Known about the structure:
Pfam families: Methyltransf_11
InterPro entries: BioC, Methyltransf_11, SAM-dependent_MTases_sf
Domain Methyltransferase type: 49-143
Keywords: Biotin biosynthesis, Methyltransferase, S-adenosyl-L-methionine, Transferase
Family: Belongs to the methyltransferase superfamily.
Mean pLDDT: 95
CATH topology: Rossmann fold
Amino acid sequence: MEINKEEVEQRFRRSRISYNDNARVQKMVVNQMIPMILSSVKRVPEKILEIGCGTGLLTSQLQRAFSSDGLYLNDLVEELCYHAATVNRVSLTHCFPGDVEKLFLPLSFDLIASASTFQWFTTPEETFKKLSKRLEQNGVLVFSTFGKFNLREIRLTTGGGLDYRSKEELEKMLEPYFKIELIEEEFYMLEFDSPLAVLQHLKKTGVNVSGDSTIWTKGRVDAFIKDYNARFAIDGKVALTYHPLYFVCRKR
């Protein structure tokens, strides 16, 4: 699936109200990341950049951990960036809205953190190089993304979806610019009452199920429900797999 950033932006803008109530795995991912971040910093970071702040799940934890006046926020969706800043008492002058892969970052940082965002990168290796240049000496990049088995049921049912990168692929891209201090992976299996509930869950968290922009007609939805049930229904429930990856990377 070719990533269309404009469509990604539109989906996350539409899901901004429903996101927090449905982002169960994303909340657990943030809780896993905080101890990794705390153990990776040698001292309290003066300047922190969060990439893909979204509704502020990680933002609030970073503020709680560091109480920093040096927290800067980025998000593809401008409204989300400013909202997360306002809610978490971050100066609006510390907001860098836009596509971080194309954005000029005017500062250097001691810590760059990101939760559940880097899977949307179209040029990850170039972006990792760019981020390494924006880190101070001994600076650290801590991020989570999603691995190859993420939403596997969707791919098997629709034949589409995002092409998630493996931890080995990401490690190879990172190694020229970072010393990788930690790689971890997890699997979460969410249970739903029906395939339709799976579709609704994904829509409310900004995910495009099929990876294309075609309309989901009633016939297409009915076919999806039938196929998903045939493949994955157990005792009247259906599952959905999440596959988070975690990286702690220090600038070379």
